[in-house]
Design goal:
Length: about 325
C-alpha cells in the first residue's frame, strides 16, 4: 500500500512496462511544491483523494485533485494576497500525492483514506486534502480526532450533510451526523456556513445559512464561528457548493443563492489565529466547470488557509493599500 500510486514519480525499478494505478489520480503538484513522501520537518502535506462513488447526483469530483492542482499554479508566482508574504519562506509544504484507493471495492475506501491520513498526521505534518466527494471528510475526521481529540468543524456547504442513513451506506450527505454521533466532532463548537437545504434537526451545530450571511454580513458570521470554536482544534471542511453556482459551477449538487467567492475567502481569512489543524476542499467536478472558475476558487481558499498557518508560524504580513 505505501508504495502504490503515483508511479510516474515513485516507481524506481524500471523505465519500461505499464503499471496498474488510478490513471485519473496522481500528482501534478499543488502550488508547484515538491512531490515528496518524506515528511521530516514538513509542516503541511497536500494530498488528493480522487474518489466520487458517494455522490448523490452529478459525478466527476474524482477529477477534482488534478483540477485544483492545475488551477493552483497561477497562485505560485507572486507574493500571497492580501498577506504580502511568500508563505513557503516560513511554512514547509510538500505535495504528498494522492491516496491510493480501490474504488471497485468500496468497503476498503474509508479505511484506506483513514490509513492514508494516519500516515501523514502521525508523521507530524498537517493535512490539506483535495477531494473527492464530501464523504471523504469522514475518515479524515476520524484520523484528525485520533491525533487532536474531538474537533470544532467549520463546514462550508449548501447542504447540512447530517441526514440520517441506514448506518451502512456511505454517501456524501450523512457523514457529519455519523461523525457527530461518534464524538469525533464537537458539534457544540462547530458551525455550518452557507447552508440552503433543510433538515428537521441541527444536531447541535450552529447553522449560518446563506440568506442569514447575505443579510448580516461576513464579519457577523465569522464572529459566530470564532466564538464557538474558541481554542479548540479547528478542522475546516470546504465543500465548494457552499458557494453560489455562479462562483462554483463545477460541482455535483449546485444550489442557487450561495456565497460569492469573495465571501468565502473573507470568511477563511477571518479565521486567523484559531487553532487550525486541518482542511479539506471537496466536490470540485471539472466536467461541469467553466474556465476553471471552481478549481481556481478551490485552490485559492486552500492557499489562503496555508497563509494563515504561515502567519501563525511567524510570517510577517505586509500591508499596502486599504485592506
Ligand atoms: Mn457537502
Amino acid at each position: 500500500m505505501p508504495d502504490e500510486g503515483d508511479q510516474a514519480f515513485r516507481r524506481k525499478d524500471t523505465t519500461r512496462g505499464r503499471w496498474h494505478e488510478m490513471t485519473y489520480g496522481g500528482a501534478l503538484s499543488f502550488l508547484r511544491r515538491n512531490y515528496s513522501r518524506d515528511l521530516s520537518g514538513v509542516d503541511v502535506a497536500v494530498t488528493g483523494v480522487p474518489y466520487d462513488n458517494a455522490v448523490t447526483f452529478r459525478p466527476g469530483c474524482r477529477l477534482g485533485p488534478q483540477a485544483i492542482r492545475a488551477a493552483s499554479v497561477q497562485l505560485a508566482e507572486l507574493k500571497a494576497f492580501p498577506f504580502g508574504f511568500d508563505p513557503f519562506e516560513t511554512l514547509s509544504v510538500v505535495d504528498y500525492g494522492d491516496a491510493h484507493l480501490d474504488p471497485h471495492h468500496p468497503e476498503t475506501v474509508i479505511p484506506d483514506i483513514e490509513a492514508h491520513a494516519d500516515e501523514i498526521l502521525q508523521a507530524g505534518a498537517r493535512m490539506l486534502t483535495l477531494g473527492g466527494d464530501h464523504s471523504i471528510a469522514y475518515p479524515l475526521l476520524r484520523a484528525h480526532a485520533k491525533k487532536y481529540g474531538p474537533v470544532a468543524l467549520i463546514q462550508f456547504d449548501a447542504h447540512c450533510d447530517t441526514w440520517e442513513d441506514d448506518g451502512k451506506q456511505y454517501d456524501h450527505g450523512s457523514m457529519f451526523l455519523r461523525a457527530a454521533r461518534e464524538g469525533i466532532i464537537d458539534t457544540g463548537k462547530s458551525t455550518q456556513v452557507g447552508l440552503r437545504s433543510f433538515n428537521d434537526q441541527d444536531f447541535g451545530f450552529e447553522i449560518l445559512t446563506s440568506p442569514w450571511i447575505h443579510r448580516n454580513g461576513i464579519d457577523a458570521a465569522v464572529k459566530v464561528a470564532r466564538e464557538r470554536a474558541g481554542d479548540a482544534p479547528v478542522y475546516i471542511s470546504f465543500d465548494v457548493d457552499g458557494m453560489d453556482p455562479a462562483f462554483a459551477p463545477g460541482t455535483g449538487t449546485p444550489v442557487p443563492g450561495g456565497l460569492a467567492s469573495w465571501q468565502a475567502l473573507e470568511f477563511i481569512r477571518g479565521l486567523d489565529g484559531l487553532n487550525l489543524v486541518g482542511m479539506d476542499v471537496v466536490e470540485v467536478s471539472p466536467p461541469y466547470d467553466h474556465s476553471e472558475i471552481t478549481a481556481i476558487a478551490a485552490a485559492t481558499v486552500a492557499h489562503d488557509w496555508l497563509c494563515l498557518l504561515a502567519k501563525a508560524k511567524g510570517a510577517a504580513v505586509v500591508e499596502t493599500g486599504r485592506l
